[in-house]
Amino acid sequence: MVEIIRGTVIQSSDAVIENGAVAIEHDEIIAVGTWDNISRDYDTSQLHGSADHVLIPGFVNTHSHAVQTLFRGAADDRDLLSWLEEVILPGEATLTEKELVASCRIGYGEMLLAGITTTNDMLTANHSAAGLKAAEESGIRGRVGKMLMDRNVPDGLLAPTDEVLEEAHHLADLYPQGGRIQYSYAPRFIPTCSDKLMAESSQAARERGLMVHTHASENQKECAWVEELTGESNIHALHQFGVLGEHTVLAHGIWTSETEMKLIADTGTSISHNPTSNAKLGSGIAPVPEYLAQGTPVGLATDGSPATGGHDFFLEMKLSGFLQKSTRNDPKVLPARTVFNIATAGGAQALNYSDIGKIEVGYKADLVLLNPSLPHAYPRYDPFSYIVYTAQTRDIQAVWVNGNQQVSESNLVKDISPYFDIAQSYARDQPFLTRD
Ligand SMILES: [Zn+2]
């Protein structure tokens, strides 16, 4: 069945069709053009939108932790290492399978409502098969990986290196390259991963055409810890383990020297930029304009809910530009079109996708329909100004992933409300304080 979606079509940061329309069939975009042409060539009985709507490619979230949703609000106003050691790691160790699934489904549901159609998500050490299944059932597209760790974590998360790798390979077999949900190898960061775990997970990802997803240079204390453990700066240490390359996305990349930035560019490694998380944890501001100038693929991301408050791509877009403009006293840096690009096509490139992030024939039908009908949407001069500086998640009327509608009339098509009770009872008990 062909469905038609009408509106101003924002194909990419440099292509806009006023009064346009898109035809989708199965999982794919089969036609893009003016409303006159599409309505002439196709049956319009299945129609969404109008000339006043705005249609954009789904946002590509390059770094998230849906599994941390149950810790939202439990770890505020701390820096990265105390945030991790006091709440997040003990919290991940307490999650039962049922709680982990609830955490993931709320997180993915929240992302879909925010127009995020693809996410690059890290689970935790336990119940990873259930986490991957939750991602699949949510309807989102993504690269999802078990969190790989074999040192410096609480007992409940600790396992021998070979056991960790064995489970990772098994899950990679179940979610290979090409599916809506693909496995990714996700060593957390050097302090929680032995040299062997870093090196072998990266090698396995390369061999299977999958990605490596890890954290790097988010916080200055973390960088000092890595130097203590390896005798090298963070990015050089990752390079020695064979982690850098086109198959790898590094979350954060805030505290990188000029030589490290050059190494990232020379190896084709991608950067995931998390402005809200970096601001809330007081981590710093990533040198995004410099990465972009060197040709490094950069995508935008929401990180975990306890690090940001929630998954809101409009907030991420605003902050990514505003933080650079304000700290450099330069309003010209990261203009709206550039920010829109890193939120969509740039993120797709950072995650090695060639068929998402733009509205083009042959691309996956991952689409977000905005209804600019609330007071803040008037007037509109420029669609990129509206999307990046003005739009809010409540402007999102409909979302499709892989041709399937996941948000309709601003609500999730799949009911996730049964998971809310599990989340609220977890918050009441705060098991990360007491549970062994
Ligand atoms: Zn993270």
Walk me through what this model shows.
This protein has 18 helices and 17 strands. The chain is α/β, with parallel strands linked by helices. The protein has 2 domains: 113 residues, Roll (Urease, subunit C, domain 1); 291 residues, TIM Barrel (Alpha-Beta Barrel). Strands 5, 6, 7, 8, 9, 10, 11, 12 and 13 form a 9-stranded parallel sheet that branches. Strands 3-2-1-4-14-15-16-17 form an 8-stranded mixed sheet. Strand 8, helix 5 and strand 9 form a beta-alpha-beta unit. Helix 3 packs parallel to helix 4 and helix 14 crosses helix 16. The longest helix is centred in the first third of the chain and has 17 residues. It starts with a strand and ends with a helix. The model has no long low-confidence stretch (mean pLDDT 97). Bound molecules: zinc ion. Zinc ion (ZN) binds next to loops. Zinc ion binds next to loops.
CATH class value of the largest domain: Alpha Beta
Tell me how many strands there are: 17
Please bin the fraction of helical residues: 40-55%
- CATH homologous superfamily designation of the largest domain: Metal-dependent hydrolases
Report mean pLDDT, rounded to a whole number: 97
CATH fold category name of the largest domain = TIM Barrel
Instruction: Tell me, briefly, the overall form.
Output: globular
Q: How many H/I helices? A: 18
Relative strand content: 15-25%
Task: Please tell me how large the radius of gyration is.
Answer: 21 Å
CATH architectural arrangement of the largest domain: Alpha-Beta Barrel
- What low-confidence regions span 5 or more consecutive residues with pLDDT below 50? none
Could you tell me how far the N terminus lies from the C terminus, measured between alpha carbons in angstroms?
A: 52 Å
Overall number of domains: 2
What is the structural class? alpha/beta
What ligand species are in this complex? Answer: zinc ion
